[in-house]
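Hi R.,

Here are the chain sequences for the assembly we discussed:
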Amino acid sequence: MKQLLLGAEAIALGALDGGISGVYAYPGTPSTEITEYIQKNKDDRAQPVRSTWSANEKTAYEAALGMSYCGKRSLVCMKHVGLNVAADAFINSAITGVNGGLVVAVADDPSMHSSQNEQDSRVYGKFAMIPVVEPASQQELYDAARYAFDLSESLKLPVLLRLTTRLAHSRAGVERASTRPQNPLNAPYAPERFVLMPHNARRQYNNLLGMQPQLEELAEQSWLNRLIPGTGSTGVLAFGIAFNYVMEVRQAYALDCSVLKIGHYPLPRKKIEAFFNSCDTILVAEEGYPVYEELLRGYFGNTHIQGRLDGTLPRAGELNTDSVALALGLTKKEIMPIPGIVVNRPPELCKGCGHRDLYEALNTVMSAHAQHHVFSDIGCYTLGALAPYNAIHTCVDMGASITMAKGAADAGLRPAVAVIGDSTFTHSGMTGLLDAINDRSPLTIIIADNDTTAMTGGQNSSANGSRLLEICRGLGVEEVHLRTIIPLKSHLAENIAVLSEEIAWEGVSVVIAQRECIETAARKKRNPAAKA
Amino acid sequence: MQINIILAGVGGQGILTIAAVIDHASLQSGLTVRQAEVHGMSQRGGAVQSHLRISDKEIFSDLIAEGTANLILSVEPLEALRYLPFLAPDGRIVTATDSFINMEGYPTMEQILDELRQTNHPVLVKAAELARDAGSIRTSNMVMLGAAAPFIGIAAETLEASIEKLFQAKGADIIAMNIRAFRKGEALSQLQATAT
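And here is the predicted structure of the full complex:
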């Protein structure tokens, strides 16, 4: 029987069956379940697969590259904005190339269900000039993971596997193929490839440029790029998951338009040219930015092309069957409206969550100040931006709370306060704290330590509890201004006092609010063996 | 055969367990299934939904198109109404009537029932009460699965077998309690269907 898997899990199983020796990742919706699947399913493995969480996407990527350097296959996973963090390693790994297969699985989040933007990782693939695969179904994800490793190993290049939220978080039956053993350790000395001093980098870059026709030819032959022939003058060029919506419309409305499915880049030029010659009008359907629509349209515009740029499809947000049907000129069905009495139900901090008690104390302290800006970060505590707390005023990127508060302090803002979680602090807050200490910036950093990476479902964080204190000491926070509080109702008066003192002090202070996430605490209570 | 189901509720109410049972039963019946769900930020006390599609043919889209859901299965009455644009003209709502209020402006139950009654023969279930009768309020979601069972296109015995399979690790008592809850929901649903 087929196995029921989330798209994210299908990648994990495909990579495992493809013989990976390790997975490296930092949690991020919608990519988290790839690594979690590998962590949870250890039973049927001949050889162990390394899988603990990394501190951030950059450390994850570099470790994966190191494993590949040694001839073994490694998978590295992240959400789209995580690739910004790993971008330095990512782009340069295309210049060095790889030894063992290296696949970077990146899950984009169009419509921003759980993200700050909807950037399209295919742009990064073009930027790095490496092959990109973009499967359209759970089965294709399983098969493509294996395929991407073979491709990477034969080309000696990293391969980017792109998916989007809907596929990552949708389940379907997946048929498993045979398993392949792990590669043996094989670490050849190749400084001419891996020492990117200018003389080597120039040669390696020229090699990469020279490989581009070969990469295009591979896409021409790829099973992920195929034509569904039809009749009529309009054709649809359907990228990634957009293919599903086009085929759904084709089936539901009994259309017979031809569809060219694209799931392997760089674009197969000959296939596309033949397709364009066979149709009068082409609808370009991409899940994400109109990356290839723009390219195919050209600077002065090809009027035979429709898509997101001319408004045939919406410019932003994920596609669906309805938006594609409309784009193909089908009239909208009569539907029942949402009744007026249906009010929004925004997400909120859990009842009993320690962040609630932290914000209650912080709001009391900040209300005494004319300027009450609080710089914050990415995690459950971001929900403090909403009613009833309205306690934080920024959330930009991982780690930015500390560094933005530092810049604000440098500009003269008093008080300058940052709120960051334990996992986000170790992800990219520590270096910002070092900057603040070196500059003696008057700044108070509150680390909301709930002992987990809570927003993504409770993954282990890289450091918490006493280790966070040690890190802060080691970076140079003065002992008297390194405080801990317990965010509980019964400690409210004491917490207000500690926060007031440290916020009043003109220097770097760190207040660590220590209380375990109630969700992970409850899970441990139900299943004591769960957290090892 | 193709059935499109919108599962609706509030983060933490257990709609993904309902989905898991239907998914398993569908595969056991040799059907194709696609089930899109929500992870991440909105799970924290926000509105959550899952699109579940079952067919004896290939399914392309993970998402249900507007106006094509055969069933909205909701564990919270206001949440059932949130997805009305997806309901097919002859589609049906099966919802619990236990409200979960964690926001401003929640309408009165009378207003909600008025809207629900304008749809095609809705099945309204006091799920918490039936779940308590079955042994625990935590089985509310299985009461709701039972109430929806006549409209899913899968035999009740197959669904029960899947409940057994999914709760296997939790022991015989928990399985029996969830089956009891399922049957209470199913009986109520049959009763309401005969009455209308």
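The CA atoms of residues 18 and 146 of chain A lie 5 Å apart. Chain A touches chain B through 51 residues (CB under 8 Å).

Let me know if anything looks off.

Best,
T.
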